Amino acid sequence: MKKSRNKKANEAGEPELKGKPVSASASEMAEVVLPAETNPLGKLLGGRVMHMVDIVAAMAASRHSNSYVVTASVDYIDFRNSIDIGEIVSLKSHVNRVFNTSLEVGVEVYSENLITGERKHTTTAYVTFVAIDAYTRRPKPVPPLIVRTAEERRRWQDAAKRRKIRLTHRHREKH
């Protein structure tokens, strides 16, 4: 199922962008939590988690858009469980929805205890990016997203709800 929004581009005489499946944007990264990245309790700093979320989300956004991207907003970040020193922190991201020049990326963060093998879902985040043209440095259109599974469709629909809330908040702040 292709979620198209390229009709406007065709009317403007621009070439139609070829859609990409969610799987094309899937990105992962992992690292071991070291002492310099922890608080006095030996827990990974929340700001460090946010930094890693931004990086892995930008990887997914860049893969989908084939362009540079800039972070426009973080709509939601939820710290469910702490991550201890010495654990492996793994992050997974994928594009949830594409708009015109922007796209929302979902990120899940997991911790893994190397001794016990226990794995925990620690953090969820939704980050919005704007694709930037490498030459003009202006926002550029993003290829449509092809959603294939029921889960991808659910995330696609939920992203539209979050966008509506985000734009409502942005509009209120201007007045």
Describe it for me?
The model is unreliable at 2-10 (pLDDT under 50). This protein has helices at 7-11, 46-65, 150-174, and strands at 2-3, 20-21, 27-32, 68-79, 88-98, 102-112, 119-132, 145-146. It has one domain (2-174): Roll (Thiol Ester Dehydrase, Chain A), CATH 3.10.129. Strand 6 and strand 7 form a beta hairpin. It is 29% helix and 34% strand.
Name its key features:
disordered N terminus; single chain; Thiol Ester Dehydrase, Chain A; 175 residues; globular
How do you describe this structure in short?
With 175 residues, the protein is α+β, with helices and mostly antiparallel strands. The protein has helices at 7-11, 46-65, 150-174, and strands at 2-3, 20-21, 27-32, 68-79, 88-98, 102-112, 119-132, 145-146.
SSE arrangement:
Layout: E1 2-3, H1 7-11, E2 20-21, E3 27-32, H2 46-65, E4 68-79, E5 88-98, E6 102-112, E7 119-132, E8 145-146, H3 150-174
Parallel strand pairs: 2-8
Antiparallel strand pairs: 1-8, 3-5, 4-7, 5-6, 6-7
Which term fits the overall shape? globular
Largest sheet, described in full?
A: 5 strands, antiparallel
User: Portion of residues in helices?
Assistant: 25-40%
Order of secondary-structure elements: EHEEHEEEEEH
Distance between the termini: 39 Å
| Annotation, overall tally of beta strands | 8
What would CATH call the homologous superfamily?
Answer: Hotdog Thioesterase
User: In what range is the share of β-strand residues?
Assistant: 25-35%
Q: Walk across the major sheet and give the strand order.
A: 3-5-6-7-4
Residue ranges: pLDDT <50 for 5 or more in a row?
2-10
- What's the CATH architecture name? Roll
CATH topology: Thiol Ester Dehydrase, Chain A
- Kindly state the mean pLDDT as a whole number? 91
Please give the CATH class. Answer: Alpha Beta
**Rg over CA atoms:** 18 Å
- Class of secondary structure makeup: alpha+beta
The tally of domains stands at 1
What is the helix tally? 3
